[in-house]
Amino acid sequence: MRLEPPEKVSEEQLTIDVREIEPLLQAPPMDLKPWPEAMIPLRQRDGSEKMLYIRQAKTEDVQPMLAFMKKVMEVEKDFYDIVGARVYAEILGEYRKRLKDPFTLVGLIDGELAGFANGRFKNEDIAISLHTMTFARRGRIGWAMYYAKTYYALEIAGAKEWWSTFESYNGWRMAGLEMAQPSYPWPEYQHELGGARIFYVTKKYWDSSVKAFAKQMIGSDLNFNVTDEVRKANENFRCPETPTL
């Protein structure tokens, strides 16, 4: 839009340094506590046990994960295409600082990406669940990753409510149905992922029911005393060659 100035001006053209614009485009960050890293043993269907190492995503993880998500976006099954596209945008949005107060957790087994979970903070009281993905089947990894990020939001970062929505039937069954998450009236309340229904967990409900139930479903609990052996086994991050979905 161009309008003639209503007054004589000494300079008709102004040069703006992009460093002066960036503070207006980048949301001022909240002072969020970091995820401290954890490990959790997961019993497999064959009776064996695998150790899932959960840490915050690092800057050097971004490019491998973006390349991997491109492959996930091509899977036209169980809504992986739309979830992959949205997760790609969320990873890039955090990397380019165009996502408000995000947090991203990666679950590794012997250094390979087995699970992904992310979210962001709307404000000090409300944390928003974005996506949870599993890349190694039948090992309760999805449960563990969803539990970990809910634990982070409500236990570590101090949110009072946790808002989720679900794009896939499996995701809704696992977290929405089995955790008996209530929903806010729709369309008065809409989740930012496509305007879908908001399913929520309050801190009180988490303490009274959901936290214990989630641990029962996983079969074990988070251990924040990560051993040197587990840390060393996961020091070299890599993504699977192809998605196992």
Write the topology of this structure:
Layout: H1 18-25, E1 38-43, E2 49-56, H2 62-72, H3 80-95, E3 102-109, E4 112-121, E5 126-134, H4 141-156, E6 161-164, H5 169-177, E7 199-202, H6 203-218, H7 228-233
Parallel strand pairs: 5-6
Antiparallel strand pairs: 1-2, 2-3, 3-4, 4-5, 6-7
Helix pairs in contact: 2-3, 4-6
Q: What does this protein structure show overall?
A:
This protein has 245 residues and is of the alpha+beta class. The chain has a single domain, classed as Gcn5-related N-acetyltransferase (GNAT) (Aminopeptidase, 3-Layer(aba) Sandwich). The chain contains seven helices and seven strands; from the N terminus they run H-E-E-H-H-E-E-E-H-E-H-E-H-H. It has a seven-stranded mixed beta sheet. Strand 1 (38-43) and strand 2 (49-56) form a beta hairpin. Helix 2 (62-72) packs antiparallel against helix 3 and helix 4 packs antiparallel against helix 6.
Q: TL;DR of this structure?
A:
The chain is built from seven helices and seven strands; from the N terminus they run H-E-E-H-H-E-E-E-H-E-H-E-H-H. The protein has helices spanning 18-25, 62-72, 80-95, 141-156, 169-177, 203-218, 228-233, and strands at 38-43, 49-56, 102-109, 112-121, 126-134, 161-164, 199-202.
CATH superfamily: Gcn5-related N-acetyltransferase (GNAT)
The total beta strand count reads: 7
Provide the β-strand percentage band.
15-25%
* Tally of discrete structural domains: 1
Q: Provide a count of the helices.
A: 7
What is the N-to-C order of secondary-structure elements (H for helix, E for strand)? HEEHHEEEHEHEHH
Low-confidence stretches: none
Identify the overall geometry.
globular
Average pLDDT for all residues: 95
Major beta sheet summary: 7 strands, mixed
